[in-house]
Amino acid sequence: MYYIIYRVSLLTLRYSKTKQGTCIRGSRNTQRQPLIEVLFYLEVRMVKKCNKCGKIKDIIEFNKQKSSKDGYARHCKECIAKRWKEYYRKNKQKINAHENERYANDPNYRKTLSIQRKERRDNNPEYRKELIDYHKAYMKERCANDPEFHKKVISRSSKYQKEKWANDPEFRKKAISRNVVYLKERYANDLQFSMGLKLRYISNTIFKTTKAQKNKKNEYYLGCSYKVARNYLLSLGYEPSLDIDHIVCLSAFNLEIEDHKRIAAHYTNLNPLDPYYNRYIKKTNLVSTWREKITTIANQINIDPLPIIDYIEAQNIEIITE
Ligand SMILES: [Zn+2]
Question: What is the pTM of this model?
Answer without folding.
Answer: 0.49
